[in-house]
Each structure stands twice: as C-alpha cells, then as structure tokens.
C-alpha cells in the first residue's frame, strides 16, 4: 500500500512538471521538438527543482548557464528563451511541487491519526481502571493480530511478485522480513539485489533467526578434518628460485656469413681485395743505394 501511494505521488509530480514545461516551451517555441523529454530528462529536472526548493537556494545560486546548456541538448532552441523567464518559471514550478508535497504530507498525517485512534481506545480498555479482560478476549485479540499480520504479509508478497515477475516467493518473503514489513524498503532491497534465496528453501523465520558466530578454533578444526592434507614441514622451508644460467660467451664472430674471428674480438681489420688494374697503378719505391767513400 505504501509503495503504491509513493508511486502515485511520483507520477503526479512528474505530470505537473511535464505539463508546466510543455506549456512554457510551446508558448516560446511553438514548433519545438519535445521527443527528447524522457525519464532521464525528468529525473534531471526533478533534481534541479529539489535544489531550488531548499531554503539555501536563491536566484544568485541558480546556475542558469549550465541549466540552459543541458536543456538545449534535449530541446533544440531552448537557449533562445530569455533567462529571466526561465528562472521565473523554474522557481514557480518548485513552489508548486513543494505545495503538492505538503498537501500529501497533511493527508498522510490525517490517515495516521485516524488509524491511531482505535489503538488508543484498546489501550484505555486495558488500563487497570477499565477492568481486567478475561482470557478468551485476550486470545481473540492475539489471534486477530496474527491473522492481520499474515494478511499484510500475503498482500505484500503479492504486490512484490506483481512488481518483479522474476522474483520468487521466498525472495519476496525474505525482503519483507529484512525490511520489517516496509514495502518501500523491501522494493529497494530487491532493486539493489541484496536479497538472496536461502539454502535449501529456508523459511523466513529461519532466515531471520539470529545465528551464532562460529568460534575460530572450531572452524579451524573443521577445515583441518575436511581437507587434512597440511604439510607443516613445507611451511618452514624457504623457497628461493634458482639463479638463471648464464649463456656461454660467443667467441666466433661472423661478417657476411664468414668467420672472421674465433677469439671474440669485437673489432677486426679487414683488407678488401683489390683488382689487378688497381695493383698496376702502385709504384714501388726502392731505397737509395748506400755509397762508401774511401
């Protein structure tokens, strides 16, 4: 019930935003393309309106340039509208949404006060001055409260299954148990995937039952008994990787696929072969003769 009310409220607020923006844009841009007004667009507008509705917000703190740039991306031609008209429209729309929320809160408070009135009458009837009730009446009240809780749980499960067809009955029951019967929190848990199916189809009572934290020593013994292959001597060893083997130095040197050295020299003087014509051009100079004078 609470979820449906919240959903209707969001739809009403979105309808107010859509109608106001549509009239404002069409009054300034008659041929405007409104096909870009999707869910992402309305979520952005709602966030901006919530900021404008805060007490700290004012016309000076409103970032008009960023807002107009974002609106221009969704609705071409929006930047041509005067910034003063845009600012006035946004603040008026924010006040209208605040009034709608306040009216809804007043209606909820009225319903809560009406629902609390019968409970107060029951409390007065159970006071010592009102007389003690007999055992049959007490049992009837207890049975009635239990039946009411079961009916509420069943209605909540049916509503969750209707909203989430892929959700199972056990998931819906567990979500309601974790949320303490609050449908909004249960929906949030299912959306955030925080609800998991219990092992072996466990019931909600078993899942909500507090479990004892296992002792560290007991847990260690259970693991040792289950796996039992623990080499304590291997834990005391220090494993060091073997040093890499160095490759032998290469002593043979090649040039043009020919061996030029077998001692590993990095440099080698190589005489290029000369042709016969080149050799003919060489002149052999002989040393002068030595003369002896008597």
UniProtKB/TrEMBL annotation:
Residues 103-129 are annotated as: Disordered. Keywords: Cytoplasm, Nucleus, Ubl conjugation pathway. GO terms for molecular function: ubiquitin binding. It comes from the Eukaryota. The keyword S-adenosyl-L-methionine does not apply. GO terms for cellular component: cytoplasm; nucleus. It is found in: Cytoplasm; Nucleus. InterPro entries: CUE, CUE_CUED2. Residues 152-195 form the CUE domain. Belongs to the CUEDC2 family. This is CUE domain-containing protein. It comes from Hirundo rustica rustica. The lineage of its organism: Eukaryota, Metazoa, Chordata, Craniata, Vertebrata.
